[in-house]
Specification:
By secondary structure, this protein is α/β, with parallel strands linked by helices. The protein is about 40% helix and about 20% strand. The strands form 2 sheets. Strands 3-2-1-4-5-6 form a 6-stranded parallel sheet, with helices on both faces. A 6-stranded mixed sheet has the order 7-8-9-10-12-11, sandwiched between helices. The chain starts with a helix and ends with a helix.
């Protein structure tokens, strides 16, 4: 159990003693990633700090409604060393990407706020609670511990990350504390309809077409307890899908009644990305660890360092069947 009050106090001291502060998260940004980053930006601005959101990726269309994204800069447009670098929702430096990692390493002081149990505690100050379902929950507790007043924009960011990383409060990592935090956030007049429409009710035609193509590739194994879908480069080109449009496919497959473990293999130029989701008893991290990855028990990812889809599927199924 981490001493959040003590760690939060250390964070506040670092912020107070810093003039220039960078905020960043991992590549392939999701709701918890962007929610925690934009919430932190909002709080730092309230504290009168000079902040930059270092973003080395595109923001998925469903999250473009979030506040403070205007503070984002590509790492190639940054030529300063920061007093403080705050990494959010990134289990290690490599997940931030090489260019952001370089800026992180040059910063005078570094902070790592996260909830992944595989976190490598790579910063000067590490606030990592693996029992928390979302980095946004950790951040909300930090703000509360420091008696920092939120506003509607910060609360909206925190709620968005909390909602998305808990599967709309469905995952087993959710606790009574999670609902207490969500309730506190609603005191700031969050527009739940804005969050719902943008995050859950705005699937593009391209994303829909990609889902259909992926589902046409589905294969079942081990008495239909394992399901594997594939997204190829051709699928991405034919549907004109954005990189983030593959998000949600593996969850869709997991929700098939017989499936305990869903797997998405996504073809890249030099590797195959792997996404894993399970329902009740398969530990996804044990499978992901065999493929240069990690994450959470019910949701993990990894990388297969070749582009042979058939071999990747065969190897993955073998490991998955052992785990099952």
């Amino acid at each position: 159990m981490i001493n959040l009050k003590e760690l939060s106090s250390e964070l506040k001291n670092l912020i107070d003693n810093s003039n220039s502060i960078a905020v960043a998260s991992h590549l392939n940004p999701d709701g918890d990633n962007l929610g925690s980053a934009t919430a932190m930006l909002g709080m730092l601005n309230k504290l009168g700090k000079n902040t930059v959101f270092i973003l080395d990726d595109s923001v998925p269309s469903s999250f473009k409604f979030l506040p403070n994204l205007s503070y984002s800069k590509s790492p190639e447009n940054i030529d300063e060393d920061f007093d403080l670098f705050i990494a959010l929702d990134s289990s290690d430096e490599d997940r931030m990407g090489d260019r952001v990692k370089e800026i992180f390493n040059k910063s005078k002081k570094t902070v790592n706020i996260d909830h992944h149990f595989s976190n490598k505690n790579y910063a000067d100050l590490n606030i990592v609670d693996e029992n928390s379902p979302a980095t946004c929950e950790v951040l909300a507790r930090i703000f509360k511990s420091l008696n920092l007043q939120l506003d509607k924009e910060i609360a909206t960011s925190l709620f968005t990350g909390l909602s998305t990383d808990t599967g709309s409060f469905k995952y087993s990592s959710v606790s009574s504390k999670t609902f207490e935090i969500a309730s506190d956030l609603f005191k700031y007049d969050i527009d739940i309809n804005e969050v719902t429409q943008n995050v859950y009710q705005s699937r593009s035609r391209q994303k829909t077409d990609l889902l259909i193509r992926a589902m046409n590739s589905i294969e079942y194994f081990d008495k239909d307890k394992i399901a594997v879908v594939i997204v190829t480069k051709e699928d991405m080109e034919k549907t004109k899908a954005a990189k983030s449009d593959a998000d949600g496919i593996v969850e869709f497959v997991r929700d098939i009644d017989t499936v305990e473990l869903a797997v998405l293999l996504k073809e890249k130029d030099d590797c195959i990305r792997l996404s894993l989701r399970s329902k009740s008893y398969v530990d996804c991290t044990k499978i992901a660890s065999k493929f240069n990855g990690g994450g959470h028990i019910r949701a993990s990812g990894g990388t297969i360092n070749h582009t042979d889809i058939k071999k990747a599927k065969k190897d993955l199924v073998e490991v998955a069947e052992e785990e099952l």
